[in-house]
Specification:
Double Stranded RNA Binding Domain, binds zinc ion, single chain, TIM Barrel, elongated, alpha/beta, 17 helices, binds 3-methyl-2-oxobutanoic acid, 522 residues, 41% helix
Length: 522
């Protein structure tokens, strides 16, 4: 592909993205993110706004030191102090970019800057010329570009290029433009600014009308060759154009958008995760990196997918680094799709009996829970394997728990112990204590509880809980696990599972008869 079709990716997750409420990142997080971005193949990484705070300064400075391939950039207003701070923060890098900006729309010039258009022209001349003292990689942005008078914008762009700017960025600061309008702006600049070929035109779109990505791609189609964007689309208000969406749109529809980027798309999921861990979770239905982006629930879609993935998949999950297609199972999913799912999850050689048991549990779970995810399925297959792999001395028949304020917590339990059905009612210090006391009454034992842990398998209040219990007896330990949407049922089963394993462990050192006599004596 010719150089003229190469689109440079300028990431501003750590600068514009961080301006999103709740998205502030620590220095360590920024360094971790920068390493992933460097590996991802981002061309320019805007790591912060050095004059804004000592934290921003330090982040730009530290990120600049670790990048191996990407070019670090810092933001500055049209002021010498800002540009000096930028240079100070970036100077450790062998190559760096100073990104300086000033507003050019009538609204911003009058109300925000209190400057005349002529004064703004002077500021552009002074700032770009000054920045060029430190690097020949200077980018200039006309803030609120899409609400700027076109003739005036042409003047500002020509001036900035004459002063040495190598990249000219036209931000849609308030997410106001549309694809056709943006094409017109970029085309006008291309046609009317005499020195335009001496710079790369760049797009920078906010997402207030949900058009950030569409506008960015429109800008590229009109001749822009740099896209400013953020991972997960984070940014001021409704965010910035999402990097992963732009890159995957270009890759997937290369027939219509014959451009290339340097992004290793297989690392997009990893980049998304590292950003969401530092900021906030990605919505489930987010394109490319959302949990549901490659999920298919409707039976008819699942069936099509099993026959040929391309029926409902325009790009593979692997191409963005998602290991497996997440076929979300619901109550309408059949046995065939369930079996296929088990295969995908690596349960290739389990017996039909286990599949049958797990499928039964899955149907019950799907009735209680709107979506059953991979992790849910793994939890219930593991549960079925536990039951299948051992002859259980003890099993739970029923459980009723009385909990809440005021009354003491009480558990009523029925257990099958070596084929005998037994019942007990116990009061405890909380419902779990009452449950464990019942088990002790029905199967007297002398183990110590070492650990009790509850994890939600997936998100949401209807999530399954996985409970882990570790017990110890005469130096031997066993761990029991169980999953259920009812945490208390999972707790009882996890404890019973640990006991069953302990009985097996004892059996390995003592004759079976000894154990049976003990049980018969209960
Ligand atoms: O949205 C915007 O205008 C910006 C500039 C500072 C480039 O983020
Ligand atoms: Zn912005």
């Amino acid at each position: 592909m010719a150089d003229k079709d190469r689109v440079f990716i300028f990431d501003t997750t750590m600068r514009d993205g961080e301006q999103s409420p709740g998205a502030s990142m620590s220095l360590e997080e920024k360094i971790q993110i920068a390493r992933v971005f460097d590996e991802l193949g981002i061309d320019i990484i805007e790591a912060g706004f050095p004059i804004a705070s000592p934290g921003d300064f330090e982040a730009v400075s530290e990120v600049s030191k670790i990048l191996k391939n990407s070019i670090p950039a810092g933001l500055s207003r049209a002021s010498k102090k800002d540009i000096d701070a930028c240079h100070e923060a970036l100077k450790a890098a062998p190559r760096f970019r100073i990104h300086t900006f000033i507003s050019t729309s009538p609204l911003h010039m009058k109300h925000k800057l209190n400057k005349t258009p002529e004064q703004v022209l002077d500021a552009i001349k002074e700032s770009v010329t000054y920045a060029r003292n430190f690097t020949d990689d200077v980018e200039w942005s006309c803030e609120d570009g899409t609400r700027t008078d076109m003739d005036y914008m042409c003047k500002t762009v020509e001036l900035a290029i004459n002063c040495g700017a190598k990249t000219i960025n036209i931000p849609d600061t308030v997410g106001y433009t549309t694809p056709s309008e943006y094409i017109k702006i970029i085309t006008t600049l291309k046609n009317k600014v005499p020195n335009i070929d001496n710079a790369i035109l760049s797009v920078h779109c906010h997402n207030d009308l949900g058009l950030g990505v569409a506008n960015s791609l429109a800008g590229v189609s009109a001749g822009a060759r740099q896209v400013e964007c953020t991972i997960n689309g984070i940014g001021e208000r409704a965010g910035n154009a999402a990097l992963e969406e732009i890159v995957m749109a270009i890759r997937t529809r290369n027939d219509l958008m014959p451009y290339s980027t340097g992004i290793k798309t297989e690392l997009l999921s990893k980049a998304s995760k590292v950003v969401s861990n530092a900021t906030f979770p990605v919505q489930f239905n987010k394109a490319i990196v959302g949990k549901n982006a490659f999920a298919h629930e409707a039976g008819i879609h699942q069936d099509g997918m099993l026959k040929n993935r391309e029926t409902y998949e325009i790009m593979t999950p692997e191409s963005v680094g998602v290991k497996k297609t997440s076929l979300v199972m619901g109550k309408h999913s059949g046995r065939h799709a369930f079996k296929e799912k088990l295969n995908d999850l690596g349960y290739a050689d389990i017996t039909d009996d286990v599949i049958q048991t797990a499928f039964g549990k899955f149907k019950i779970l799907a009735d209680k829970k709107k979506h059953v995810y991979d992790d849910d399925i793994m939890a219930l297959v593991d549960d079925s394997l536990i039951t299948d792999n051992q002859i259980n001395a003890i099993s739970l028949k029923s459980l009723k728990v009385f909990a809440g304020t005021g009354e003491p917590q009480k558990a009523e339990m029925t257990l099958d112990v070596y084929g005998k059905v037994k019942q007990a009612t116990e009061i405890g210090d909380g419902p779990v204590d009452a449950i464990f006391k019942c088990i002790k009454v029905l199967y007297p034992h002398d183990v110590k509880l070492q650990l009790y842990q509850v994890h939600a398998v997936t998100e949401g209040t209807d999530a399954q809980a996985t409970v882990s219990v570790r017990i110890e007896e005469k130096g031997k330990t066993t761990v029991g696990q169980a999953a259920d949407t009812d945490t208390l049922v999972a707790s009882a089963n996890a404890y019973i599972n640990a006991l069953n394993k302990m009985i097996i462990k004892r059996d390995k050192t003592a004759p079976m008869e000894q154990e049976n006599q003990k049980v018969r004596g209960i």
